[in-house]
Write a structure and sequence with these properties.
- This protein is α+β, with helices and mostly antiparallel strands.
- About 35% of the residues lie in helices and about 20% in strands.
- It has an eight-stranded mixed sheet, with helices on both faces. Strands 13-12-14-15-16 form a five-stranded mixed sheet, with helices on both faces.
- Helix 1 runs antiparallel to helix 5 and helix 5 runs parallel beside helix 9.
- The model has no long low-confidence stretch (mean pLDDT about 95).
- The structure holds histidyl-adenosine monophosphate.
- The site of histidyl-adenosine monophosphate has 28 residues, from strand 6, strand 10, strand 11 and helix 11.
């Protein structure tokens, strides 16, 4: 039989890697909940139409990367991202009736059928934050600040922030035509790929490495120069707030994000410490998204950051395994029930307790307990009644005590 392995682009999370994730989650919760973001979980799969409408038919994500299957007559897709699902939940639960903006955060796994490489997986995790229901520029700035603080708290190095503005859909539509005209004018100089996508996604031309295309793009019109006064003012205010907060950033007039729902502010954090996949996290405003998926016109803004990428470049504070307060060593069937009850009672009282479960010799059990750093060991060796030997592994002291008094001894010392 062929060896069974985790599917391509997926991985198991074990040992230290699992501990590092718990720590990351704790940090994200502290940073986001102190700013009033509440946790949300949405289903792992949604109606395909949510992503087709929300993320955009023309995007790579929707065109090539979705895991889609049929459930009876409905087409279902494993979520490739979290913003459209959170907006769907906002509409479904009538959250527009709550005080605005509604601030939500998540740590969930997402699925994209991409070519796997370091930092790019087919199932990956994101920490994300969304603020829905206000177009106030201070929210854009607050969210950017929070992601910056999260990366800081994790010790992510070599971080750079790029920011741009995409304006409103109207500005973008006019700009798109202007850009398309420019691309058609210099069509012969472009790469085949860019040429074939002029009609569908002309903005992508800014991403190209192809030298001919790059030259054409140097003289291309810039969206930032075409913003309405209102959008320019919004962008200016966001930038001013970032400056006031001491958040260094570069304006990138060609910042293109892979999802279609963005309006006005867009941003991306990269880390020089990452290789080709340098994007640690990014996001922006999506003032038209909720309407696109069938809700009332509602502004929103948010970001998501890749857990694997953050962990790849985070300062690795060694995260030890959780401490063990008591190890219950026992030998012989008559001791089993008392040992079992003691471990359960100690855990119920709020301490970490482990029970021997592998039939080791008593000597082996003590060694095992010391290896895991157990503070106390209770030794049940078929003694009289409920008596056992309680050993303080720090001082080396041992005492014969009644099992009911173990907690008392652990709390007060010998
Ligand atoms: P995104 O830029 O597609 O945005 O993804 C955000 C982050 O997820 C990326 O910067 C990267 O760190 C990580 N990521 C994306 N794809 C992969 C992959 N295949 N393997 C590993 N990590 C990956 C969004 O998803 C938007 N929903 C962000 C947002 C929230 N915009 C507004 N609100």
């Amino acid at each position: 039989m062929a060896k069974l392995q985790a599917p391509r682009g997926t991985f198991d999370v074990l040992g230290d890697a699992a501990l590092a994730r718990v720590e990351l989650e704790r940090t994200a919760r502290r940073v986001l909940e102190s700013a009033g973001y509440a946790r949300i979980e949405t289903p792992t799969f949604e109606a395909t139409e949510l992503f087709a409408r929300g993320v955009g038919e023309a995007t790579d994500v929707v065109q090539k990367e979705m895991y889609t299957f049929d459930e009876n007559t409905e087409s279902i897709t494993l979520r490739p991202e979290g913003t459209a699902p959170v907006c769907r939940a906002y509409v479904e639960h009538g959250m527009h009736k709550s005080p605005q903006p509604v601030k939500l955060w998540y740590l969930s796994s997402f699925f994209r059928r991409e070519r796997p490489q370091a930092g790019r997986y087919r199932q990956f995790w994101q920490v994300g934050a969304e603020a829905i229901g206000s177009d106030e520029p201070a929210i854009d700035a607050e969210l950017i600040l929070l992601l910056s603080e999260l990366l800081d708290a994790l010790g992510v190095t070599g971080v750079r922030l790029r920011i741009g503005s995409l304006g409103t859909p109207g500005t973008r539509a006019a700009y798109r035509e202007e850009l398309q005209a420019h691309l058609y004018r210099y069509e012969e100089a472009l790469s085949d790929e860019v040429r074939s996508r002029i009609a569908l996604n002309p903005l992508r031309a800014f991403d190209a490495d192809h030298p001919g295309t790059r030259q054409v793009m140097e003289s291309a019109p810039r969206l930032l120069d075409r913003l309405t006064d209102e959008d320019r003012e919004h962008f200016h205010t966001v930038r001013g707030l970032l400056d006031d907060a001491g958040i260094a950033h570069e304006v990138d007039p060609t910042l293109v994000r892979g999802l279609d729902y963005y309006t006005r502010t867009v941003f991306e954090f990269t880390s020089d410490a990452l290789g080709a996949q340098s994007g640690v996290g990014g996001g922006g405003r999506y003032d038209g998204l909720i309407e696109m998926i069938g809700g009332p016109p509602t502004p929103g803004v948010g970001w998501a950051a890749g857990v694997e990428r953050m962990l790849m470049v985070a300062a690795r504070a060694p995260v030890g395994p959780p401490p063990v307060d008591l190890f219950v060593a026992w030998r012989g069937a008559p001791s089993r029930a008392l040992a079992f009850k003691l471990a359960a009672d100690v855990r119920r009282a709020g301490h970490a307790a482990r029970l021997e479960l592998a039939g080791r010799s008593l000597k082996g059990q003590l060694k095992h307990a010391d290896r895991m750093g157990a503070r106390y060991v209770a030794i049940l060796d078929g003694g009289e009644g409920n008596a056992l030997v309680l050993s303080d592994r720090e001082s080396g002291d041992e005492q014969t005590v009644e099992s009911e008094t173990v907690l008392h001894h652990m709390r007060s010392g010998f």
